[in-house]
Input
Amino acid sequence: MSTKNEPEEKIPPNDRPEEKIENLHLNLENIKAREGIIGYILRNSKSASVDIKDASKIIDYAVLSSTVLDSGEYMTNTFELGKINNIVVEGKNVRLLSLTIGNHRVSVFMDKKVDHNAIYKNLRLK
Output
């Protein structure tokens, strides 16, 4: 909203939230195509996008994703750690990278040999 004396603020094209989310979807699709990526979950308060190679494990991965992100938020609040950049959980064969981007919660599941730092860098929106 603008007044008569102030010009309406225009949002630069790269700063529009809907374009950033489209970029996030594109980044996730590119990441999913990499060797060793099992899949991802992207969700906000209204919807979720799930792309897991083994459909029989979707519920398991969804529960893990939600639990990790909720636990991370709880621990940072309890111990006053500040903002979390990302959470990495490593099991015997699988690694999970979880983070929050804007209002979206992202979890990427990968083989243990995949460099999660490279995935994290690809997910960050400019």
